[in-house]
User: What shape does this take?
Amino acid sequence: MSTLLIKNIGLLQTPTGSFSHRGRQQGENLKLNDASILIRDGVIAGITDKGRLPEGAEDTGAAGIRVIDAGGSLVTPGLVDGHTHMVFGGWRQHEIPLKLRGAGYLDILRAGGGIMDTVRRTREASFEELRDKTGDFLDEMMSLGVTSCEAKSGYGLDIDTELKMLRVIKALNDSHPMDICATFMPAHAVEEKWKGREEEYIEVCCKEMMPRVREEKLADYVDIFTEDSVFNAAQSEKYLKAAAQQGFRLRVHADEIAAIGGSVLAGQMKAASAEHLIVIDDAGLKALAEGGVTAMCLPATSFYLGATFAPVRRMIDEFEIPVATATDFNPGSCPSLNLQFVMNLGYLRYRMTPEEVLTAVTVNPACAIGMGERTGTLEAGKQADIVIWNAPDMETLCYRFGSNQARIVIKKGEIVKCN
Assistant: This one.
């Protein structure tokens, strides 16, 4: 039996429970001073505070017990990134001059760039190239304190490339320490040959692609980009209903550029999450609240695009919607996988409290990607996914930006990063 003791924790801070936190709950964290955590075989066996050691850890010199002295630092659950597009070929740095001249997201997409440029490069890349590149991203994410994440397909738009992307995610979930939730997203853009025939492409997604993904057990969730010049609400509803009938859970890219009904649909379909929500209106907010949908907000994308920021304070205070924040890591609109920076933006631009920020990068995204029963909080019986920070408290993490504050990262009781 492998046993690890983390002692001399200055402040242990964590949400509690295995459910999405909303309203006032979003800002409720357990805080323990001078705490210790005992871990057996990758699972938290006990947590104590006030200088006491958990039962079974009193003899720290016993054979087989490894000890980490946290040195009075802050300790939190491992971070959870609930929205990424990390499997892709190439990069899109050549679009920056276009953006500096005023071209918008849809302008670049209509000109054959944007997602379609990445689609071409992803089709060209081999499985091994995508696997190795994505594996490097996972290593970097884990060094920043992320221990679980979501990853979408969507840069294939044809069955062969979509399956290739999902097989990369599956291979890495099997071989890498990171726990990865796979989301199938063939409805990410409209290829030129399908322009004006979007309904036919939706049929292909539902009747040809989804059954293959289900047969190979490559994803538990599906997503669709419900947006102006991409897929409208009626097309999205048909797609999501077909996905639900085939046993997939649902996500919706909604209200990033225009409020065309994506968030309302997400609420009506009781999706696990609605993503972006930059320009969500009151009807969308009401629908998310009534549908129990997690708002997956992506402040680094707003930052990178110079866009407005999602109305998170209204989500929490007025509508009591559970809020998660994620990177949206992708090669076009957010080429950053730094969830610590997202925490800074949640604090500074969303005006979230440090407690709300922690909930938004731990238990809420964990629940939204189907991992809430095993990770996202520090409690007995959960996976020992833990970060020891170079900081005394959450206020410091939210305050400092541009430096990696993760000192030791532990995944299932094993040290995966130590400075």
